[in-house]
Design a protein that fits this description.
single chain; two-stranded antiparallel sheet; 7 strands; five-stranded antiparallel beta sheet; alpha+beta
Length: 160
């Protein structure tokens, strides 16, 4: 595990924002998995389940997977200090359980910096897409627990 340096890497000595210099780092295999949870009112979840999560806009799951994949590829455009990365793989899985969806995004690349932000962005945008496709049924849909589950590669690994 990496030691806590009590120093934010995206701030320079004067406290101004900066993109971290990764030029001296080695290219390694990197991966990260993040998850977001979408909680539905019971009646809405029942209705969606009965319709196999199909809406008048199309497949809720397939649309969320495509949106999450697109978001992962555009993370550097959304998060100002992220490095643009060439992603090797984006996998988004959606599971149902107790009036909620668990959206899990796993990202892989060969690079000098990790893909945690890409995984978190993919899971978040997939969850937002689910909300967008279902909001006509209820605005009482809640996106919660967006979190990093694991990361591998680089100086340190992490697992929740």
């Amino acid at each position: 595990m990496k030691k806590n340096t009590n120093k934010l890497s995206h701030l320079n000595e004067a406290g101004n924002p900066r993109m971290v210099d990764v030029s001296a780092k080695q290219v390694t295999s990197r991966s990260a998995t993040a998850q977001a949870t979408v909680q539905f009112p019971p009646s809405v979840f029942k209705q969606l389940s009965k319709n196999s999560f199909l809406s008048s806009k199309g497949s809720i799951f397939n649309t969320a997977i495509i949106a999450g994949t697109m978001a992962a590829k555009r993370t550097a455009d959304l998060i100002p200090l992220c490095h643009p990365l060439s992603l090797s793989q984006v996998t988004i899985d959606i599971e149902t359980a107790n009036e909620l969806l668990l959206i899990t995004a796993t990202i892989k690349c060969e690079g000098k910096t990790g893909v945690e932000m890409e995984a978190l962005t993919a899971a978040s945008v997939a969850a937002l897409t689910v909300y967008d496709m279902c909001k006509a049924l209820s605005h009482d849909i809640v996106i919660t627990q967006t979190k990093l589950l694991q990361k591998k590669g680089g100086k340190s690994d992490f697992a929740r």
